[in-house]
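Sharing a chain and its predicted structure for anyone who wants a worked example. Both blocks are below, sequence first, tokens second.
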Amino acid sequence: MVHHLQRNQLLWKKGLVQINGQELEDDQRSLNLFNGKKTRPILVYFLLISLIISCSFIFGPQLSFRPDSSYSSFIGDDSPIVNEIDVPLCSSVANGTICCDRSSIRSDICIMKGDVRTHSSSSSIYVYDENEQNREEFDGELQQEENIRPYTRKWESQTMSSVSELHLISKRVNPDVYRNHTCDIIHNVPAVFFSTAGYTGNVYHEFNDGILPLYITSQRFNKKVVFVIEEYHDWWYTKYADVLSELSDYAPIDFHGDKRTHCFPEAIVGLKIHDELTVDPSLMEGSETVKDFRQLLDRAYWPRISGLIKGGTISPALSSKPKLTIISRQGSRAILNENSLVKMAEEIGFEVEILKPAKTSELAKIYQSLNSSDVMIGVHGAAMTHFLFMRPGSVFIQVIPLGTEWAAETYYGEPAVRLGCKYVGYKILPKESSLYDEYDRNDPVLNDPDSIGKKGWEFTKKIYLDRQNVRLNLARFRKRLVRSYAYSMAKKNRRINHPSK
């Protein structure tokens, strides 16, 4: 029945109507409907269908629903006849209440509206519903209680155990009594609560699990929002202060370190996350993309970069040669013949810079190096996150060691394409891996990495991530560099000849 109704809706859109199993064009339908007695039953059917469709337009919003998975599979994922009205959970929250969306595998997010007050010593956030009637009867009545760990790796129980749990409490109160929980600081803008625990300290996770979700969650507030941070770290704030200043006009609050009661008209607890190192415009109120996020990085870092250039600490990019930056690794997954790679790149015509990011490296300086680069080369690892600092249209060459292909493409290759980079994934041959010297030529470690990966993450990490280095076949790799050079030179010439483009 559902399928039959949906099919009639599709026919209606096409200018067809189905009556007694027959599809009639508009003109033919009109002729038959008004020609003689034999068509009168058809006329009745047509009027009835018209009435049903008219009612659906009038009452549709009230009767709309979200199909469950069985309904979707029945209709078919690619069916053009389903017009699902996808209203986000918690899109409307009444004052004094809590709404939690736990539908995502990646993170939970809760929204509290009304009189929101922090109580850090008990890891609690209260929202009060003032009840003028029956004051004594309802004073202190608990309406709702939710618990949440505000970090974006919900599916990893061990990681989430390092994240402090927040208790969200809604109470009906007598307004004359509850004021004993007074506000020390009153904010007239919403708050976003999140944690910098988990994998914070790894640049990939800092961006993927924290900074990008923070952008996604807070962008709609146009900087009129306060960040309240669990597991607050001074070093993290120092590292990302430039970015935070583009997301909020206010200093962040250390939730557990600040014992004062902060009061807000609204609180968002937890962060939204879309995918690996990306922003899905279909899920953003303003249709922002990861390119908009990169423009925010540009605004965040340019004042600092400008100061460094004026102070002579760094030099502006003035060379007519395309610039190639190599992200150099120490220890595992290092390029063992890096010096030869540099020499070859310079012979091709590149200006080459070696960049060695460290935990203490100032991000503005890394941004300046990569923002001025035409090509970036690096071996798969967390430092590849810095492709976010490349200009759209630049070339990103990721060297992919044995056993890392899926992660390399998923975490960095595909997101780089969404940013607009020209992405090249260079999958090494077994002979280019240091593992070639350790294992028999027929060993699955060399010839069937997927079978090793099926044994579990610990095997992959131990063999392919912690013990593998790369010795590039320079003759093979040179082809990628030559094409990248030609592409970069063509871009430079276009900018010279058409500076407005």
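Comments welcome. Confidence is low (pLDDT under 50) at residues 1-86.
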